[in-house]
Design goal:
Layout lengths: L1 H19 L3 E6 L7 H16 L3 E6 L2 H10 L6 E2 L2 E2 L3 H25 L4 E5 L6 E5 L9 E6 L1 H9 L3 E5 L1 E4 L7 E3 L2 H11 L4 E6 L17 E3 H9 L7 H13 L4 E6 L5 H7 L6 E4 L1
Parallel strand pairs: 1-2, 1-11, 2-8, 5-8, 6-9, 11-13, 12-14
Antiparallel strand pairs: 3-4, 6-7, 9-10, 13-14
Length: about 290
């Protein structure tokens, strides 16, 4: 009986696989799924499966808990401004070391171990990401991405590898040659737009957009770009969901066809969202 059930699920996935084959998706990987070993394995397996069926996958990762652990280890103050990490020059060195030197390499090793090829990159590699310092708030050496070297990424994808991108950008203008810290959600959205990706998927620690945050079953499965503004005005989007929804809107406004917010605490949520009719999180359409 189990074999029949598994077979029918594979058959139902086939139209979704066909629709995405040859297309590009950008996955932002963060939250609990990065620090729980079981969840980490499930996400990596999902990414490798997705690439194996012919989908071009770009992975952009966070690493907040690892950065905080290192800052605490060296006795450095952890500071946030409006939910965004304040990054002075010393903190920037630690952020770059942790994201590019440890987190990225660990993810690449897991992908390689699961049978796919991965290439660890940050914005300094191949002129991938260029940014200017954020002017709207005093966040230190934090950047707004101005340019993505999409051709460099396309060539990496054409070679059959999964790019694993750390959200560090090369400063231009007044900060020419400096490393700038970039919000990983925003980086994923801008990269998705630059690649004209089919989908942006944010793997996070919430089920998706909830009509009532106190009711886990009040998930909004599908919402349009226009309706996002209405939900915010109604107070349904609040706290951490506001910047996530804004990143999805940024991607859609840049030409990405669909954006998804899914719960990485649920094993194989990425496969469920991409390859089933029901999905598992919130789908945001143009």
């Amino acid at each position: 009986m189990q074999n029949k059930t598994d077979s029918s699920e594979l058959i139902r996935a086939l139209p979704h696989i066909r629709a995405l084959r040859g297309k590009t998706i950008v996955v932002k990987y963060g939250g609990s799924a990065m620090i729980n070993a079981e969840l980490k394995k499930a996400v990596i397996d999902d990414i490798v499966f997705t690439a194996a069926v012919g989908v071009r996958v770009v992975l952009v990762h966070g690493g907040g808990p690892e950065i905080d652990a290192m800052l605490k280890a060296v006795g450095k103050e952890i500071r946030f401004v409006d939910g965004l990490r304040y990054t002075d020059e010393e903190t920037m060195d630690i952020v770059q070391m942790v994201l590019c030197g440890k987190v990225s390499k660990d993810i690449c090793a897991l992908i390689q171990g699961a049978g796919a090829q991965a290439v660890g990159l940050c914005g300094l590699d191949g002129g991938l990401l260029e940014a200017v310092r954020v002017k709207t708030a005093d966040l230190g050496v934090v950047g707004d991405i101005q340019r993505v070297n999409s051709g460099f990424l396309e060539r990496t994808l054409d070679g059959g590898a999964i790019p694993v991108i750390s959200p560090i950008a090369m400063g231009v203008g007044e900060d020419s040659g400096k490393s700038l810290n970039v919000n990983a959600d925003t980086a994923a959205a801008v990269i998705a737009a630059a690649l004209a990706a089919e989908k942006l998927v944010l793997v996070t620690d919430v089920r998706g957009i909830l009509r009532n945050v106190l009711e886990p079953d009040s998930l909004i499965s599908t919402v349009s770009r226009r309706e996002l503004g209405e939900l915010r005005n109604a107070g349904i989007l609040n706290k951490g969901m506001i910047p996530k929804s804004e990143c999805c809107a940024l991607a859609l406004d840049g030409g990405v066809k669909k954006a998804h917010i899914i719960d990485g605490r649920i094993p194989h949520s990425l496969l469920t969202e991409l390859f089933t009719d029901e999905g598992i999180g919130t789908l945001i359409t143009v």
